[in-house]
Amino acid sequence: MGSLSELFAPESVAVVGATDREGSVGRAIVTNLRDEFDGSVVPVNPNRESVLGLDCYPDVGSVPDAPDLAVVVVPPQIAVDAVEEAAEAGVENVVVITAGFSETGSDGAARERELVAVAEEHDLNLVGPNSLGVMSTPVDMNATFGPEKALPGSLSFMSQSGAFITAVLDWANDQGLGFKDVVSLGNEAVLDETDFVREWGDDPDTDVILGYLEGIDNGQEFIRTARDVTDDTPIVLVKSGRTDAGAQAASSHTGSIAGSDEAYEAGLEQAGVQRVETVQELFDYARALSGQPLPDSDGVAVVTNAGGPGVMATDAIGDSRLSLASFSDETISALQDALPDEANVYNPVDTIGDADIERFRSAIDVALSDDGVGAAVVVSAPTAVLSFETLAEEILALQEKHGKPVVTCLMGGESTEAAADVLREGGIPNYFDPARGIRSLEALSEYRDIRDHTVEPPAEFDVDRERARDVLRGAKRRGDNRLGVEAMDLLDAYGIPTPEGDITDAPEDAVSVAQDIDGPVVMKIVSPDILHKSDIGGVKVGVENEDVYDAYEDLITRARNYQPDATVIGVQVQEMVDLDTGTETIVGMNRDPQFGPLVLFGLGGIFVEILEDTTVRVAPVGRDEATEMIDEIKAAPLLRGARGRTSADEGAIVETIQRLSQLVTDFPAILELDINPLVAGPDGVQAVDIRLTVDTDKL
Ligand code: ADP
Ligand code: MG
Q1: Cis peptide leading into 129, omega within 30 of 0?
Q2: How many C-beta atoms surround the C-beta of residue 418 within 10 A?
Q3: What CA–CA distance (Å, rounded) separates 631 from 639?
Q4: Which ligand is nearest to the CA of 526?
Q5: In this predicted structure, what is the pLDDT of residue 260?
Q6: Positive or negative CA dihedral for 588, 217, 439, 403?
Q7: What burial class does residue 86 get, using C-beta atoms within 10 Å of its C-beta: 0-12 exposed, 13-18 middle, 19+ buried?
Q8: Are 679 and 582 in contact (CB under 8 A)?
């Protein structure tokens, strides 16, 4: 697949299925193209001589020069043939508008497979099928059947919903927001979101990549691509639709906690994508990111002529990742010089209700000069001594002078419109609501961190892969796909510390294992059919040597009573781990259909699902990311020695997360896995319990 630049800047476009029939899609597309497009438009239809005044050809092969792009609108039954014909005529870029493919059931799915085969054979850049079309403003191309065309600009937008594009354009045109390219992704049989992220990442005319996505096909590839692109170009997405495709009947804690939306949340964040919830936010972000410089620091100055709204702005800053800048002495005395005595010269700066342009201007100027100020928000209520339009012009000039981001909240209705237009032209967003203004500054701060963030490659530990494979095959040998504590060696093979212990299948053996272990022991029932051992009294903690024999028999009896047909492998006898100085954590993995292995870390023990103090990352997880995972849980202070506790060995936790990440990356056969608890103490970690599910066919 080549670069997609010709798809967006063709010199000629063939419309296959062009027609003049009123109300038809073929007519709408020809009309949209004919009216504005810089290049030539070639209708193709064997039943017409001309369409809307343009010469019509019977097939793409008869067009004298092969068109750069073919837009296909013929009925589904002949669409694949039409694409093939265009490809054979030398067309390399195809947009299939026609619906009736995989979105419609098994016949459609079969048709889509044929389409993919044709595209692969001819190495086509194919958009769709079931697409609204594509647009590109530099060549005035509107190859869609939508009613609206985009204004020129520097945002490139992709959407998995065609209807959403028409709605967005209608709205964006009202707002004066302009686009470079727009693409309706349709069924994404060939080109998908990752291809467009890559394309726009290389496109100097795209300042911000925007998307409305319901799903991401290949999460791992998307993360890799987006990480690269976001070094230069922000990506902002609305991800809707909480699919439950991944929520299989989970048999692990991790499986029940780490579902599909957690995967998206983590995956998009790791990709450097800014995820927003609403369309309004999508375009607030877009406007800020395309029109404003990035702040060097997160200190914000608020300059206002109105107390109340100034407080609203201050509150919004408090709720955000930004902070209210504290001014230098120099700034304060300069403000004292510029403002009347009753004014507030500390942040938020209140120039008071009678502030005229000059007073406002100097306050903003002084505030923006302060090194501790990364950005400013100007909040103003309408007054008789102030022209919003003049203020807007002054603000633009000051922004230019200082090169720092500024947003405005010129509050009011009609009286603000002319000023808002002036500001918009200069790339400054104006919002009535201070919270929205602060949010758009936050978007800039977020992106600055994304741009500056480097992702270190995951570590590769020296592990015993063959031994691990052999442990996993143990499930297969038993005709099962589940493994419990009998798979402790798997952890050992990957260098994750486990307490001393063994599985026994006779009480005498249990006694002899216990005698080899210092002090009292822990004994646990070992059965793939018993998910949570302690629920049935299947875990005995602090068993003295003389009680081991009876404890063994008791555990077996309990298992039998609980579930007479349960497969009982035996009883594990395990060294006691110190839970007074250690904290029970969980490290686990669940496999997501889109993103692959998700690694989970959190507060562990038997109440994990109740507390749900956990966080996830898409594997592979590097050291920095593993460290961030610890930072993110609420119980982090517990691990770091709150209330006189001794801090846990954080390095050992971080390493365990990384080693688990390597294990689940090395073995796609592992579907779900819990180490719960991983006891994290001052002198290291101990994996006390494990349970996993494997796909034995993949071993
Ligand atoms: P399950 O999760 O199936 O109930 P575990 O092996 O996780 O079984 O044991 C349950 C709880 O028993 C653990 O969360 C922990 O509090 C305690 N426990 C288990 N093994 C040990 C051990 N070796 N040392 C100290 N406490 C343990
Ligand atoms: Mg457990």
Answers
A1: yes
A2: 13
A3: 10
A4: 1
A5: 80
A6: positive
A7: buried
A8: yes
Q: What is the pLDDT of residue 259?
A: 67
- Which atom of ligand 1 is nearest to 577's Cα? 24
Q: What is the pLDDT of residues 501-528, one digit of tens each?
A: 999 999 999 999 999 999 999 999 999 8
User: How many C-beta atoms lie closer than 10 Å to residue 554's C-beta?
Assistant: 17
Q: Which residue has the tokens 């000069």?
A: 369
Q: Find out whether the beta carbon of 689 lies less than 6 Å from any atom of ligand 1.
A: yes
Q: For the chain, how many residues are written?
A: 699
Whole-number Å distance, alpha carbon 639 to ligand 2 midpoint, is: 19
578 within ligand 1 shell (Cβ under 6 A): no
Full DSSP string of 25-64: HHHHHHHHHHHH-SSEEEEE-TT-SEETTEE-BSSGGGSS
Quote the CA–CA distance of 262 and 645 in Å, as a whole number.
32
User: What pTM did the predictor assign?
Assistant: 0.92
- Measure 462 CA to ligand 2 centroid, in angstroms: 27
Whose CA is closest to 588, among 527, 682, 671? 671
Give the atom of ligand 1 at the shortest distance from the alpha carbon of 579.
Answer: 25
542 lines ligand 1 (CB under 6 A): no
**Residue 66 CB less than 6 A away from ligand 1:** no
Distance 646 CA to ligand 1 centre (A): 21
Question: From the CA of 496, how far away is ligand 2's center (Å)?
Answer: 16
Q: Is 224 helix (H, G, I), strand (E, B) or coil?
A: helix
**Residues facing 504 on adjacent strands:** 571
Exposed, middle or buried: residue 287 (CB in 10 Å: 0-12, 13-18, 19+)?
Answer: buried
Token pair of 255 as six digits: 């499986």
Instruction: Kindly report which listed range (1-15, 237-251, 281-295, 564-578) carries the lowest average pLDDT score.
Output: 237-251
Measure 695 CA to ligand 2 centroid, in angstroms: 22
DSSP string, 76-125: HHHHHHHHHHHHHTT--EEEE----SGGG-HHHHHHHHHHHHHHHHHT-E
499 within ligand 1 shell (Cβ under 6 A): yes
